[in-house]
Amino acid sequence: MCGIAGIVNIHPKTRHASAIRLMTNRIAHRGPDAEGVYVDDQVALGHRRLSIIDLSAEANQPMWDYSGRYALVFNGEIYNYKEVRALLKDYPFRTHSDSEVVIAAYATWGPKGLEHLNGMFGFAIWDQKEEVLFAARDRVGKKPFFYHVSASQLLFCSEVRGLLASGMMDGKLDESQLDEFFKYQAAQHDHTLVKGIRRLPAGHYLLLKDGQLTMEQYWGYHHLRPSADDLAQARRQVKDLFMDSIRLRMVSDVPVGAFLSGGIDSSLVVACMAEQSSSPVHTFTISFDEKQYDESTYAKVIADRYRTDHHLIRVRPESFLESLDDILASMDIPSGDGPNTFLVSKFTREAGVKVALSGLGGDELFAGYNKFIMYYKLMSWAWVQNIPVSLRGNLLRALSARMKNHRLEKLAELSSLPNWNISTVYPVLRQSYSDQDLRSLLNLPVPVDGVKAHLAATTKDLAWMGRLSQCTVGEMETYTRDVLLRDTDQMSMAHALEVRAPFFDYRLIEYVLSLPDEIKYPHQPKQLLVDALAPRLPLEITSRKKMGFTLPIDQWLRKELAQLTSEKLQYLAGRKEFNGQYIMDTWKHFREGDPRVLWSRIWKLIVVSDWLQRNNL
Q1: What is the DSSP secondary-structure string of 395-425?
Q2: DSSP-based three-state secondary structure for 20
Q3: How confident is the model at residue 96 (pLDDT cuts 50, 70, 90)?
């Protein structure tokens, strides 16, 4: 887990020694253990290292292959690097690192080497002989890879602020992406909120050759097929895949811990780690004085059952307020989430742990959110689509306005859709702001919804899937990749902590997506997962009401954070892109307790305001 940066000249050839160091200095938090730079007339490569596997100096980067032809800068981990290394019998390895396995795989197999790698990564390889850059991002998008291309250079980096720090591009807000940020907590697919900065899409690689940039997809849903396994076979396969995913993610030359919330997903991660560990697992739990948010009693049940070395982190409003500037400063890209991960990462790293496993992905893969049930049921009510659209939505809109009910507003919007499929229904289920809300918030035209367009393009690939699998793809293509995984990366790497997510092993994803609804339908929360790994969790964990890993920010915004919130919103209200009166009215309604104004809407406004000011955009 590290930070990478690079500059490749298209024309003319020149050295960029100062620019590459500005970039690596800006992302120094990602890799405090070592720094490396290589510069010539054609390319500049930079690396900041967080040492996890092979702690020796020989594993520092940029790393050259034995022949001196290929140079690598790598961010991430290859969990099955030992297995891949065993396939490369003729390669003269000089280190025991997973990084050298990546460069050997490319030298041996070219782009097809990606098919052998199980891990999280964003990396670039410079072919000095052919003057070609090859770069790739992992299948799910756990690790970031941002780039900017002009007529003169291609710049790439693990973070947007590293590109801005180069001094080789202008930093301007991309106003056209604001609508998707407020709808989905992130600019979507390959876009960012900065003009000219793009993301290499997950499951893709790019080539820069003779000044031409090309991109190819090497992993997606089009190659998946339905499974014929019955329920008993599915349980066995889920168990085997998950246990192996845990095994691979415990490979490390430094201590490994786990985030433990007390929910099903993190509890199963800890249970399976304990089975495969010869020493007590280090577990970390956040607790609050606000009892409706506190899950520490459930976490202690698991910690006691598996005799972990348990660390309880109590977060109070004053300690959150003290950390707030650091939390906001850690956001390379604005986010509607993330403070929880920042805090647990901070205390985990301070305890001397460099690697932590997380329960991220269990809800998305095993239908743990209410929206899965809603989508499943909506798609079962085909007869509703025979009712005229105007009749479907008008009554619910009137009721929601009268009752000030956010859920009714959402249902009214769903009822007004002319047809129901994954590309029309899922975006509404996930949206924080509707198009009508955005017309009130932004002094900008509301463009075509990128999420709807992207999901519509995948409809053919998903047609055979069950409804729950389709909804999982919706999550994977939006919230999972562009919010959950991005936040996990930026908030954990703010403390140089590597977070690994066993539920996002691509083999497990592919298998669960292939299963029919009748095997996965959640009569109880994530029943397939719980049954597959029974009896590892006690009934008090599997049967309790879902809480989610959240902070009591809604309460704090009205009290301890009220002054800061007012200041941030006033700044935003003064910008030309926003309707200032609408922002201040929204803040007023929230303070007065209007249930239609969720705290998450206020938090997004705070985050964007701070990010715009902090980056002078």
Answers
A1: HHHHHHHHHT-HHHHHHHHHHT-SS-SHHHH
A2: helix
A3: very high
E-state strands within 32-158: 34-39, 43-49, 63-64, 70-78, 119-127, 132-137, 146-149, 153-157
Host H or E run for residue 343: helix 339-350
Give the residue among 598, 604, 513, 510 at the shortest CA–CA distance from 565: 604
If we measure between CA atoms, which residue out of 156, 133, 192, 141 comes closest to residue 5? 156
Tokens at 286, concatenated: 């956040």
Query: Per the omega criterion (within 30 degrees of 0), is the bond before 62 cis?
Result: yes
How far is Cα 515 from Cα 532, in angstroms, rounded to an integer? 14
The residue whose two tokens read 């290292």 is: 49
What was the pLDDT predicted at 316? 82
Q: How large is the average pLDDT for residues 290-318?
A: 89
Provide CB contacts within 8 A for 330, sequence distance 6+. 338, 342, 490, 491, 494
Task: Name the CA dihedral angle for 204, 210, 211, 215, rounded to a multiple of 10 degrees.
Answer: -10
Whether the CB-CB separation of 377 and 383 falls below 8 Å is answered with: no
Q: pLDDT tens, 403-439?
A: 455 666 777 777 778 788 899 999 998 988 888 899 9
Give residue 401's pLDDT.
Answer: 53
Give tens-digit pLDDT for 154-199: 999 999 999 999 999 989 999 999 999 999 998 888 999 999 999 9
Lookup: tokens for 525 = 């929360």
Cβ neighbours around 15 below 10 Å, total: 15
Asked if 23 and 157 touch (Cβ cutoff 8 Å), the reply is: yes
Sort 11 into a burial class: Cβ within 10 Å, 0-12 / 13-18 / 19+: exposed
State residue 446's pLDDT score: 80
CB 44 within 8 A of CB 37: yes
φ, ψ dihedrals at 350, nearest 5°: -65, -25
Q: Which residue has the tokens 């029974």?
A: 534
- Residue 280 in 3-state DSSP? coil
Positions marked catalytic: 2
Indicate the SS3 state at residue 59: helix
Peptide bond into 388 cis (omega under 30): no
Q: What burial class does residue 575 get, using C-beta atoms within 10 Å of its C-beta: 0-12 exposed, 13-18 middle, 19+ buried?
A: middle
Output the CA angle 428-198-79, nearest 5 degrees.
85
The tally of CA atoms less than 13 A away on the side-chain side of residue 601 is 25
Q: Is the pTM of this model over 0.85?
A: yes
Buried b (16+ CB within 10 A) or exposed e, 302-334: bbebbebebbebebebeebeebbeebbebbbbb
Q: Which spans in 404-499 are helix H?
A: 406-415, 422-430, 435-441, 450-462, 467-475, 486-493
**Burial class of residue 554 in the structure, from the number of CB atoms within 10 Å of its CB (0-12 exposed, 13-18 middle, 19+ buried):** middle
pLDDT, residue 389, reads 67
Give the pairing of strands 70-78 and 63-64: antiparallel
State the first-to-last Cα distance of the chain, in angstroms, to the nearest integer.
Answer: 29
**Are the C-beta atoms of residues 250 and 348 closer than 8 Å to each other?**
no
- Which tens digit of pLDDT belongs to each residue from 97-148? 999 999 999 999 999 999 999 999 999 999 999 999 999 999 999 999 999 9
Distances (CA, A) of 570 to 440, 464, 556, 577, 578: 17, 49, 19, 13, 11
